[in-house]
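Much of the work behind modern protein science is quiet bookkeeping, done one molecule at a time. The fold becomes a row of whole numbers, each drawn from a learned catalogue of backbone shapes. The protein below has been through that process, and both of its lines are reproduced in full.
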Amino acid sequence: MKIVQRMIYFLISIAGIILAGGLPSLLAGLNDKKLYTGHYWRDINEIINALMHPGSLKYTIIGGQKERDLFPYLFDPIFYSLTVLFASFFLALCLALVLTIVTMLFPVRIRNRIKLTFYLLESLPDLLIIMVIQLAIISFYKKSGILLFNTASTYDDKAYLLPILILAILPAVQLFRMTIVSFESEVEKDYVLLARSIGIGKLMILVVHVLRNAIISVFFQSKKTVWFMLSNLFVIELLFNIPGITRFLMSTMQPVLFVLSILSIFIPLFIFYNAGEMILAKKANRGEEM
């Protein structure tokens, strides 16, 4: 995909987010079977003007009375949430790849049992997993006096490790399901059969050859996993008292702040996936040429 096309998709997405930001005004009279188009376009105009002059933006938390400057305050929640999100994603991806490589070393019969176990884990509610882990840590702390992880963020001591670990659990299972399918598909290809015929070990084939090709497919499919993680990010921030961007989004109903909050998540993810796709596409093309 050319850079011009990517830029067009980016601008269309930005426009869609801006237009979505005014929907509450448009649908405010839905019970009376009315659409407030005038209010809608007024809000859209305000959003565009605000995005052109972000330094003058103010915000008021629901239930609060005092207005505050939005920037640089908003940078900290954005950075906090993106740190947890991306760290969880890379942790989940690494766990999935390691589990896949280990699973592929077993015979097919045992491999199928491992796959079934992980598929069953994927059906567990994410909220249940979060609560069980939190309760286990608190229970261990009460008995031993040792706090393994921070179970909540404070102003001076932010929780990172436990939220990252918990947010990564179910995505790791989802990514494992994708990677095991990709690995099983790759090991049937001619280059793997050739590598086996010249005496290369199974582990070496998986790590050096199969992983390099399978990771491309997994990366392209991982977008659904990231959307799943975003839906859980608010729950994580709420339960761990994390002052992140999704909690900020829920603390205000202003259309401008809604759009800015969504853009602060969308733009980094757009850059990440488009940069990754371009890099992996070049590697794939080089591999085909070789």
